[in-house]
Amino acid sequence: MALLEVKDLSVSYGEIEALRGVSFAIEAGAVVALLGSNGAGKSTTLRAISGLIAPRSGSVTFDGQPIAGLGPRAIVRLGVAHVPEGRRIFPGLSVRENIMLGASNGDAASAQIRRDADAMFDLFPDIRRFADALGWTLSGGQQQMVALARGLMAKPKLLLLDEPSLGLAPVIVQAVFEIIAQIHKRGTTVLLVEQNAHMALKVADFGYVLETGQLVLGGDPASLWSDTRIRDAYLGGASPQASS
Predict the structure, then answer these.
(1) Is the Cβ–Cβ distance between 26 and 79 less than 8 Å?
(2) pLDDT value at residue 238
(3) What is the pLDDT of residue 104?
């Protein structure tokens, strides 16, 4: 049984239909990349899964339980964490406090939560020295690491990542994707929304392509690399050999 199963999911913003009949499944322990251009519906898909928006129709089943229509807090407690686009660092809080906010039980005074936050600095050593600094003072790449650490504080079975490389320098993008690979090795299932198809497919076990709210293609990374539609639309026409 798949850890996550999305069936015939449709979402509208007023009169605008953002998703139309989207269906896919994710096996436990996999990294799945959701690719597509701006406005394709990638972020909307994540928001519908995490309960930030309610679907117009369709179903979302997580770990055997229907979750469409549940609130975000209930979905987090079931084991789904969402790291949104833009990092969303709270400027008046320290890096440690930002990370601790990700704990699913919300008890920031808990000694266990402090220990869990300390463990995040082992996974993200580049931000350890900034633990007591205000979150807004960090660079974009460091803030992305704080956002990832905050998402992992809920100890999720499924981590939803929305454009983790957006606006980052290439060397920082590489570091972020190395962390995603580490998260995968820890056994966390990942659904990755990403416009950088090259990097996304390097860490993914499977990929889907969204276009104007509909899934138009799915396959393993090798087959997606070899599809000229993917290369032309998302890789600037680069050949699989040149992009590997």
Answers:
(1) no
(2) 47
(3) 65
Let me know how long the chain is: 244
d(C-alpha 88, C-alpha 84), whole Å: 7
How is the chain split into domains, by residue range? 4-87+157-243
Distance, in Å, from the CA atom of 149 to the CA atom of 137, rounded to the nearest integer, reads 17
pLDDT band at 217 (very low <50, low <70, confident <90, very high): confident
**At 14, phi and psi to the nearest 5?**
65, -125
Q: What is the spatial distance between Cα 172 and Cα 144, in angstroms, rounded to a whole number?
A: 10
Contacts of 163 (CB under 8 A, 6+ apart): 43, 85, 193, 194, 195
Is the pLDDT confidence value at 132 over 80? yes
Considering the four listed CATH numbers 3.40.50.300, 3.90.1170.40, 3.30.450.20, 3.20.20.70, the one that applies to the domain covering 4-87+157-243 is 3.40.50.300
Say whether pLDDT at 94 is over 80.
Answer: yes
Q: What is the pLDDT of residue 241?
A: 41
